[in-house]
Write a structure and sequence with these properties.
Helix content: 25-40%
Largest sheet: 8 strands, parallel, barrel
CATH topology: TIM Barrel
Strand order of the largest sheet: 1-2-3-4-5-7-12-13
């Protein structure tokens, strides 16, 4: 991928929030000082993670958080999106760690933005069970009571679509279930947990609450009606199923009757008003009619019985992960959301955007971020109300089922020594933020 154009990135509005993101399980380590999560159970099973690794140590952020906050301060970001580990909070003294981290961030002038669930469910719980949503709300209340005097901006859940589909439908992520469409209750219970968490945060005085959902445009493989129909279904499953209950208070047509419980009553909770809507964007997906056989895409095995097939987006450069690079897809996505949801769409925050590349002189990452920021600015110019942008990620980290083979960080981590080395992209982003004034 070519480096950036050299032209200055257009100026974003005053008050635009600039940040970076991480998640607890991917960086904290100190696994012995928290309860096991579903990811601890999953990674202990041979063959689940490609390099056989676990996140028991990861980036050792639990012990090195002061060094990492200093990196944030040096970067000059406004905010740091991290996640709170529910299994750690359940452990004696576990919430003390987040107390210390929030204090350190505030002292450094970096706004803390906690995500309350980023896939590391306590191993004793199951999203197939409705009670897990109620248990989540109780946990959220505990965290908000402890941190709410210093934290104003909160994220309830991260990417419930991926946690449902990869973890419970296809078995590629924890907990490793292969339920296909029988995983839909997991989606509903996570969305219900989001609504209950919003209520709990409001009760604690929070006034700046959102959710981080992953989204991307869905492109039919051709104009053939079978491809168009399959792409429409995929769009419902990956985008609308998780956006519309939150934004509109309704499931897409035909999906509500597949959900458990008193769905209409639950939707009133799920649609508790949010102050902004988080979008994690990486790439569009090209989708066609089912091909009658199991296929593989992006390292995922897609069963033959799915009513669609995911196809390669040809003619595009790809990251080291093999993901296609389509910056204009971000503009298309955001403008499409505005067109679809109109005045019901809350202000948008890009809660994740980034790429996997090896090396410390990571010019390809610079080019990627440059192009996506220009695409984001185009959405702003088109009238989309975007309030912030968070790069994924501050640090190289444990990349779930890929183990340590993928490096998304602005900062290189030598996992043997835990040495942090800011990459060229770190310095580029720092300089960009300085010019923001």
């Amino acid at each position: 991928m070519a480096t950036d154009t050299g032209d200055p990135i257009p100026r974003f509005p005053d008050g635009f929030l600039w940040g970076v993101s991480t998640s607890a399980h991917q960086i904290e380590g100190a696994a012995e000082q928290r309860e096991p999560s579903v990811w601890d159970v999953f990674t202990a099973e041979p063959g689940r993670v490609k390099d056989g690794s676990t996140a028991a140590v990861a980036c050792d952020h639990y012990h090195r958080y002061r060094e990492d906050v200093a990196l944030l301060a040096g970067l000059g970001v406004d905010a740091y999106r991290f996640s709170v580990s529910w299994p750690r909070v359940n452990s004696p003294g576990g919430l003390d760690f987040y107390d210390r981290l929030v204090d350190e961030l505030c002292a450094a002038g970096v706004r803390p933005v906690p995500t309350l669930f980023h896939w590391d469910l306590p191993a004793t719980l199951d999203w197939l069970e409705r009670d897990t949503a109620a248990r989540f709300a109780e946990y959220v209340s505990v965290v908000a009571e402890r941190l709410g005097d210093r934290v104003s901006k909160w994220i309830t859940l991260n990417e419930p679509a991926e946690h449902t589909l990869l973890g419970h439908a296809l078995g590629a992520h924890a907990p490793g279930a292969q339920l296909l469409f029988d995983a839909l209750p997991v989606a509903h219970h996570q969305l219900l947990a989001h609504g209950l968490a919003v209520q709990a945060l409001r009760a604690a005085g929070a006034t700046d609450v959102g959710i981080a959902n992953s989204h991307g445009p869905t492109w039919p493989a051709s104009a053939d009606p079978a491809d168009v129909e399959a792409a429409g279904f995929y769009d419902v499953l990956l985008n609308r199923l998780f956006a519309e209950p939150v934004i509109l208070g309704a499931y897409p047509e035909g999906m509500g009757e597949l959900m458990p419980g008193d769905v209409q009553q639950d939707l009133k909770v799920i649609a508790e008003p949010v102050d902004w809507y988080g979008v994690n964007y990486y790439a569009p997906t090209r989708v066609g009619a089912p091909q009658g056989t199991a296929t593989e895409y992006g390292g995922l095995r897609m069963p033959a019985e799915l009513p669609f097939s995911v196809r390669e987006i040809a003619g595009r450069p790809v990251t080291d992960f093999g993901w296609p690079i389509v910056p204009e897809g971000l503009t298309e996505l955001l403008c499409g959301f505005r067109e679809r949801y109109g005045d019901r769409l809350p202000p948008i925050v890009i809660t994740e955007n980034g790429c996997s590349y090896d090396g410390v002189d990571d010019q390809d990452r610079i080019a990627y971020l440059d192009a996506h920021l220009r695409a984001l600015h185009s959405a702003l110019e088109a009238g989309v109300d975007v309030r912030g942008y968070f790069v994924w990620s501050l640090l190289d980290n444990f990349e779930w089922a890929e183990g340590y083979a993928r490096r998304f960080g602005l900062v290189h981590v030598d996992y043997a020594s835990q040495k942090r080395t800011p990459k060229a992209s770190y310095h580029w982003f720092r300089d960009l933020l300085r010019t923001r004034g």
